[in-house]
Amino acid sequence: MFQRKTLARKVQLTGLGLHSGIPVTVAVHPSQDGIRFRLGSDRIQAIPENVSETTRCTRLGTVSTIEHIMSAFAGLEITDAEVELNAPELPGLDGSSQVYVEQFLEAGFELCGEEPVPSLYRRIFLQETHCNIAVAKGSGHWRYVYDAGSRWPGTQSFESGSVIRDYGKEIAPARTFALEEELPMIRQAGLGKGLDESSALLLGQEGYMNVARFPDEPARHKLLDLIGDLYLAGIPIGILSVVSEKSGHTANVKAAAMLRQAIHATG
Questions:
Q1: Where do the DSSP E strands lie in 57-120?
Q2: Has residue 195 been placed in a domain?
Q3: I want to staple 177 with a disulfide (CB 3.0 to 4.6 A). Which of 100, 108, 201, 233 is the partner?
C-alpha cells in the first residue's frame, strides 16, 4: 500500500504565464479526488488522455505549462490536489519547480487514505527517431541524457539513485533553458514572456550566458519535466526506475499513456 497525500491548507501563488506573460493567480487546494486543474467551468483531470498540446510545454485541456507543478507534486509524493487558475497558463515563477516545492512544504500535508501499489509486470519502452524512454518497476532510480549534438555543451546526463530523496535539492531548482540561436524564433513566436535572465538559463555557443545553478542544469531540468509529464500516469515515481535519452514533452506524454495503460491492464 502507499499513502495518498494532499496539502494541509490552500497555497496561493501569483506570477506571469511562462510563455504568454499573462498575469495569473494560482490557488492549490487540498483535495481527495486525484489531481485536477480548474479554469472557469473547466475541471480537468491530470491524465495523459486529457493532454491537448505538447509543443514547448504540456497543455492539459485549456491549461498550459502544467509540467513544473506536476513535477513538484510527484517529487513531494502529493497524490491529490485541485489547481485553480484565473488565466490559462501556470506562472513561470523562477523557471523551475522550486517555488512550488517551498510553498507546499510550508503548507504541510495531510494523509487522505491508502491505495494498493500499482503492479507493473512489463517494461515500458518508447523508441522514436531521436529519443527513447524506458520505464520499469524499481526503487526510484532515474536518469536523463540531454544531447545538444555538435554544439556546446554536447551531451550531459544527470542520474539520481533515489529520486524522492534528491528531488528537492538536486532537481527542483533546475530552470528551463534556451539555446542562443533559438531566441529570435522564441521571441517571434511570442514565447517565454513570463521568464527573464534570472528564471531561464541561456546556452551560448561556448558556455552559459548567465549564471547556472548546476554545471549540468539542462539535463536536470529535462529530468524535472520528464517527472512531471510521467506523473500524469498517476504512478508514484519512487516505485519506478526510468531512463530517458533526449525526450521532450511529446514523447514523455506518450510514455505516460503507455504506463497508465499497462497499469490498468494488469489491475
A1: 59-60, 81-85, 109-115
A2: no
A3: 201
Query: In the beta sheet, which residues pair with residue 157?
Result: 145
Per-residue pLDDT tens over the stretch 153-206: 999 999 999 999 999 999 999 999 999 999 999 988 888 999 998 999 999 999
User: How many angstroms separate the Cα of 90 from the Cα of each of 16, 85, 147, 220?
Assistant: 8, 8, 27, 20
Give pLDDT tens digits for 87-120. Answer: 999 999 999 999 999 999 999 999 999 998 888 7
| 3-state class (DSSP) for residue 133 | strand
| Average pLDDT over every residue of 8-20 | 97
Higher pLDDT, 120 or 213: 213
Per the domain annotation, does 86 fall within a domain? yes
What is the rounded CA–CA span in Å between residue 196 and residue 95? 9
Q: Model confidence over 234-247: pLDDT tens digits?
A: 999 999 999 999 99
CA distance 133 to 142: 11
pTM: 0.96
DSSP-derived 3-state class of residue 264 = helix
In DSSP terms, 133 is beta-bridged to 126, 244
By annotation, the residues acting in catalysis are 249
Residues 6+ apart with CB under 8 A from 90: 17, 18, 24, 26, 63, 64, 65, 66, 68, 69, 83
The C-alpha atoms of residue 222 and residue 217 are separated, in whole angstroms, by 9
Cα of first residue to Cα of last residue in the chain, in angstroms, is 14
CATH number of the domain where residue 54 is located: 3.30.230.20
Whether 239 maps to a domain, the answer reads: no
